[in-house]
Design a protein that fits this description.
alpha/beta, Rossmann fold, 8-stranded mixed β-sheet, 225 residues, binds S-adenosylmethionine
Length: 225
């Protein structure tokens, strides 16, 4: 299903230009020069230097904006491929005046064009699309092709944090992460069954929790070789 373009989308995107550090755009895929122009200059992007965290598939940005407020000495880059959705995330960050969160309108497939290796302190995968059909498995954000990209970007000892309502995706991720050499810790089959310290909710998480559904969570550490 194709999402209908939101009214005034172009004007809204222009109004949050200062929060959007990369716009992949349709020419990204057929114009090789574009790929050399989208590397993020972290010193320019953020007011202060600090640890760098990514959220992949940030939706409307509730999680990343809350994290940016909670951890003002860290920097956050949130990536989302749907313009209709990321525009709301940028508007939220701008209205809250956050200077430690920026957005990339683009696909996780292209992360290596945006960031250098060994720059990332953590990656959040929140309620990623499960792509249940086997033929779409290579779109899952814990598919081995993505894990290879993340391993390059991540500093030694940094971690991926995954939360999902989808048991199939969770089991798949446990397998692919283990096979890629990540060390799994804090695996939970029902995150909200007990009091959770330090959990920042996402939009999808709030909906699922309200419906009484279990939330699966894991942390996967990049091994220090
Ligand atoms: C189910 S939503 C979850 C949104 C948010 N993380 C939350 O928990 O509320 C998943 C989001 O990931 C985005 N997404 C899926 N695959 C992506 C990819 N390869 N690159 C960037 N974004 C992606 C989708 O467009 C969608 O907005």
């Amino acid at each position: 299903m194709r999402l209908r373009k939101k009214k005034n989308l172009e004007q809204r995107l222009t109004a949050v230009d200062d929060y959007m550090i990369v716009k992949e755009g349709s020419d990204f895929y057929y114009n090789p020069a574009r790929k050399n122009e989208v590397k993020i200059d972290l010193d320019k992007a953020f007011a202060k230097s600090g640890k760098l965290y990514l959220e992949l598939g940030c939706g409307k940005g509730a999680f990343v904006c809350e994290m940016a407020k909670k951890y003002p000495n860290s920097n956050f880059i949130a990536l989302e491929k749907v313009p209709n959705v990321i525009v709301s995330a940028c508007e939220r960050a701008k209205s809250e005046g956050l200077d430690n969160v920026k957005f990339v309108l683009g696909s996780a497939e292209n992360l290596t064009y945006f960031l250098d290796n060994d720059t990332v302190d953590g990656i959040f995968l929140n309620f990623s699309c499960p792509y249940p059909k086997k033929t779409y498995a290579n779109h899952r954000l814990t598919n081995p092709k993505f894990l290879k990209i993340y391993l390059g970007l991540m500093k030694d000892g940094s971690k991926i944090v995954q939360k999902t309502d989808n048991r199939g995706l969770f089991e798949y991720s446990i397998q692919t992460l283990s096979e890629a050499g990540f060390i799994l810790r804090d695996v939970s089959l029902d995150l909200h069954a007990s009091e959770v310290a330090d959990n920042v909710m996402t939009e999808y998480e709030s909906n699922f929790v309200a419906q009484g559904l279990p939330i699966y969570k894991l942390e996967a550490y990049k091994p220090i070789l």
